[in-house]
Design brief:
alpha/beta; Rossmann fold; N-(1-d-carboxylethyl)-l-norvaline Dehydrogenase, domain 2; 2 domains; 6-stranded parallel beta sheet; 13 helices; about 15% strand; oxidoreductase; NAD binding; NAD; 6-PGluconate_DH-like_C_sf
Length: about 290
């Protein structure tokens, strides 16, 4: 299949590489010359004319940073989709709001395109290993057409509805992920002030009933005081805003999420915005009279 990949960031890179390895012809578009150079290094074709690439694509896969970029490229008056051929499939993998996704759906329908919402959950390493979880929603025809492509990067696929449900599912999971990491920071401070060596405490937490693959990864990083970003404080704050806005629209109280958003705001204000969101543990430690 002839595929155009829009957005070759940290997650897009390994995902696109796996789609190419699965036998598809992948063309890459990204506004960053540095990211285009990475794509060339992987022997992926970098398009010079986005309009022509869209017109030739059987499927378009987007991995974009936020609502504003997704709306500009996929839903605005100058949307790249205006050149898409009828019957082409759009697979949108970004973490964006329900409202933004619904606007993209209208544009795709106007172009007579299939539209599959397919946000992903997992790390860059999981993407490289084809081990991401993908939540999918959309018309049944789009789901079935997109499933073989999505399977290139996802070991787990969950179809959750026929419209925007995948967006809600991704935000719900991210709500739990960020509250879990914030609670890890609180537990770390509690144990440390209670006289337990950090390694002993974190190993015990990882082995406890609350232990999970994600928690173990973050506990190991906290033990090593490694805040190298897999997903930054700034990025998590963006997701938390989407979560709280979406919850407000659905009249759902997000009590824990609102508190965590304030912790992440404090982390960003403290100059930790470009560190992994695990850096919220530094803020919690500071409030506890500790220093990491």
């Amino acid at each position: 299949m002839n595929i155009l990949w829009l957005g070759f960031g940290k997650m897009g890179e390994p995902m696109a590489a796996r789609v190419a390895a699965a036998g598809h012809v992948v063309h890459v578009f990204d506004v960053s010359e540095a990211r285009r150079a990475v794509a060339r290094g992987l022997n992926l074709d970098v398009v010079t004319s986005l309009d022509d690439a869209v017109a030739d694509a059987d499927a378009i896969i987007s991995s974009l940073p936020n609502d504003a970029v997704a709306l500009h490229i996929l839903a605005g008056e100058e949307s790249a989709l205006r050149y898409a051929k009828p019957g082409a499939l759009l697979i949108e993998t970004s973490t964006i709001s329900v409202a933004a996704s619904a606007a993209i759906a209208k544009r795709a329908a106007a172009q007579e395109m299939g539209y599959l919402r397919a946000p992903v959950s997992g790390s860059v390493a999981a993407a490289a290993n084809g081990a991401l979880t993908t939540f999918m929603s959309g018309p049944e025809a789009a789901v079935e057409r997109g499933r073989p492509i999505v399977s290139a990067w996802a070991s787990t696929i969950r179809v959750v509805g026929d419209a925007e449900q995948a967006r809600v599912m991704k935000l719900a999971v991210n709500l739990m992920v960020t509250t879990l990491v914030a609670s890890l920071g609180e537990a770390y401070a509690l144990c440390t002030k209670g006289g337990i060596e950090p390694k002993v405490a974190l190993d015990a937490i990882s082995a406890s009933a609350i232990g999970s693959p994600h928690l173990k990864v973050k506990a190991d990083a906290l033990e090593r005081l490694d805040f190298t970003p897999a997903f930054t404080v700034v990025q998590m704050r963006k997701d938390l805003r989407l979560i709280t806005d979406g919850a407000r629209d659905l009249t759902v109280p997000i009590l824990l999420g609102t508190a965590v958003e304030q912790i992440m705001a404090a982390a960003e204000a403290s100059g930790l915005g470009d560190e992994d969101y695990l850096a919220c543990a530094k803020v919690i430690a500071g409030l506890s009279g500790l220093k990491i």
